[in-house]
Structure prediction request, 35 residues.
Amino acid sequence: MLYLLNYNNRNWKCTLQWLYSCSILCNSMALVIHA
Prediction:
């Protein structure tokens, strides 16, 4: 049970990092398109 919780937590952090990177990428693309 604890292992599963730990695994989910790690997955959640990974997803958060991925979303953060994706938003930065999207913002950069938007800047390029507007420029």
In short: The first helix runs from residue 2 to 34. Residues 1-35 form one domain. The two ends are 51 Å apart (CA to CA). The chain has a mean pLDDT of 81.
